[in-house]
Amino acid sequence: MSRPLLWSTFISLAGLTATGPSVLAQTREQYQAFLEASATWDMHALHEMAQRLGASPSGGERTLGLLVLAKIDYREQRLAASMQKLDSILQYHGTGEAELLARAHREKCIINTDLQFLPQAVREADLGLALVDSSTAPGLYAELLVAKAEALSEIPEYNQAHQLLTQAYHLAEKAADKVWMGGALMALGNIQYGQRNYDKAVESYRQAIQVVQDASNQVAVHAISNLAAASAMSGKLDPARQILDSLLTVLGPKDPALQYNCMSILGFISARQGNYAEAVSRYRAALAFADSVGLREGRTKTKQLLATALWNLGDRAQGLALANDALASAQQEKEVATQVELHRRLARWQNILGNDRSAYEHATTYAALSDSLVKARFNQQLIQADILFDTERREHQIERQKQALELAYVADRRKNLQRILLGLTVVAITIIALLLWRSLRRKQKLGEQERQLHIQEVNDLMRRNEINTMQAMLEGQEKERERTAKDLHDRLGAMLSTIKMQVGALESKVEEAQAEQHGLYERVIHLLDEAVGEVRRIAYGMNSLTLSRFGLAKALEDLCDNVRISGKLVVELKLYGLEQRMDRRVEIVIYRIVQELISNVLKHAEAHEISVSVTREAGRISVMISDDGKGFDPSKASGGIGLDNVRSRAASIGATVHVDSTPGHGTTVSVEGALAE
Asked: Among 367, 414, 566, 624, which is least packed by CB within 10 angstroms?
């Protein structure tokens, strides 16, 4: 399901006016009307205002008209045109219009956040904050704080975003502005939603609704919508459905984006409840509504959810086609996170359909995109840290310049040597204290770094010891298997064969005996043959001589041949890159993992088809076992000995295990790990 709607993206609230001097004093009534129209999304009023202000001879009104046009362009998804108009306001208008310029910076921050140009968004918010004073324009200052917090939460930089929202809330509380108190609470709920802390998000949204105390206000409307989304994600599906149904009945045509979001969430709820037919209907209705009003944002995610619902409904062909269409849209829109999810899902679906090459390509792309996404987020955090460092450095420079001017002012005005000396002494003491404080801080940081390094070394040592212990245990198990198998084959098998020979020596005497005794003799011979064969099979299963002599590929082929049951169980084996032998320990671990997983399928899954895929490529080994059995819910599974054994064996070679299963739709277990060449 898509993220909750960002508050600052949709609302510029009425009643947030500044008292500082600017040319807006000449157009204060018009400016107030612009804020009210923006708050209610009255596009008709905004268009009329833009036409009237654009024809005005007043420069201040024409500037305000340009801001109105930028707002219209943004609401109608013409982001580039909106950005150009905002740049014109900032480039060609003087510093006397500080409030207007600050609002232009805020709008640019919102657009950059939508486009995921997050460092630029933070920079625009800082430029706006530098133009206004929290004491004279508390509303606009709070708006800028919330806009910056939402940009930081996308990086993600949750701690700093939380601090900014707390500052915005207290500022609005001091100004008795309930609307922006609620706005700050709702933005906090969005951060908690992004952190998947849905219960806390629900509480923040409820507090926002209670603070605003006006169900028609846009803060309350969006808080109600996001409350439903968070409730659905936390598993409270029926209350979420009731909230959304009530909201859609009272929601007017002024907010198509919110209507579309509510319709999509209802589809998600239906899918979570297992009603895939209803989910398909709701997702299609949401997409049709988006087409009718020209909405683009969020369509790709809805297509992905619709494809999943169709697949779960049994319409695999249409689900696969729609997933590929959603992937093309995500690539065009550069939605990397959605691409990652679609490649992961398509890899699993193609594997189920038996399209191994396509499944492998999607899995490879999924791994590459996941790594690039993590790297991009890390780079964004580095850029943000550089920006914050530069900002702090400039603030220190400004502060030092102010101190120097104050000292010069005292020297010129009073010409008192004693005060000058006292001032210099104070400055010297301050500098010394600062140097001592910085030295102490540096020592504390070095001590903390050494402590963390020591903890890391201890953890690494414990992890290596744990792996060595696990490897020793597994090697001991294999040696015990070999010893037992050898004893069974060489000693017990030989003894049974000797008994058979001794009994065979009685054959001539038995033929002379009665017919009843002859039948008893034949039964004894038959039982001895079965005992010898069973001993050999047990020894083979424990020791896997084929694995030792001919390698992993041949051993897996024999294992799958033994499991197949004609007409009842189909076992498909795909092997890539196993022409060359691997380390014996790795081959044994892979073989035992496949053996354990197939045993689990036979015991629990009630499957008709099993697919085994083992791929070896440069520096990596990949194992995937899929079945079409009854599946299970991994989040509710208690965890049996079989899966624990698989995870232990995988950990012994540095591999990880991922279980993907849905009740009624089979199970896929994948094992991925590095491989020393």
From this structure: 566
Q: How far apart are CA 23 and CA 190, in angstroms?
A: 36
DSSP-assigned letters across all residues of 112-154: HHHTT-HHHHHHHHHHHHTTS-TTT-HHHHHHHHHHHHHHHHH
Per-residue pLDDT tens digits for 144-198: 898 898 888 888 788 888 888 888 888 888 878 777 788 888 888 888 887 788 8
DSSP-assigned letter for residue 294: T
Q: Please, which residues bridge with residue 623 across strands? A: 614, 671
Per DSSP, 601 falls in state I
Give residue 274's Cα distance to chain centre: 23
Give the CA radius of gyration of the chain: 35
Name the DSSP class of 612: E
CA–CA separation, 543 vs 27, rounded Å?
90
Question: Which single residue is written with the structure tokens 């599946």?
Answer: 631
Q: How far apart are CA 13 and CA 150, in angstroms?
A: 17
Query: Residue 669: in which H helix or E strand, if any?
Result: strand 667-674
For residue 482, the model assigns a pLDDT of: 60
Check if the beta carbon of residue 116 is closer than 8 Å to that of residue 43: no
Are 631 and 638 in contact by the 8 Å Cβ rule? The answer is: no
| H or E segment and range at residue 614 | strand 609-617
Dihedral sign from CA coordinates of 460, 463, 469, 473: negative
Q: 356-390 burial, b for 16+ CB within 10 Å, e for fewer?
A: beebbebbebbbebbeeeeeebeebeeebeeeeee
Mean pLDDT of the chain: 76
Cross-strand pairs, 627: 610, 667
Q: Contact 664/629 with Cβ under 8 angstroms?
A: no
pTM of the model: 0.45
Q: Are strands 620-627 and 655-661 parallel, antiparallel or unpaired?
A: unpaired
Kind of pairing between the strands at 570-576 and 609-617? parallel
Helix (H) or strand (E) holding 494: helix 493-505
Residues 488-528: pLDDT tens digits?
Answer: 655 555 566 556 555 665 555 555 555 556 666 666 666 76
In angstroms, the CA 290 to CA 268 distance is 17
Contact residues for 92 (Cβ-Cβ < 8 A; gap 6+)? none
Cβ pair 222, 193 in contact under 8 A: no
- Is the Cβ–Cβ distance between 131 and 18 less than 8 Å? no
336 vs 76: CA distance, rounded Å: 24
H or E segment at 562?
A: helix 552-563
**Does residue 276 contact residue 283 with C-beta atoms inside 8 Å?**
no
Q: 121, 151 in Cβ contact below 8 A? A: yes
- What's the mean pLDDT in 344-352? 86
Contact of 347 with 359, CB cutoff 8 Å: yes
Give all strands of the β-sheet with 609-617 in edge-to-edge order. 570-576, 609-617, 620-627, 667-674, 655-661
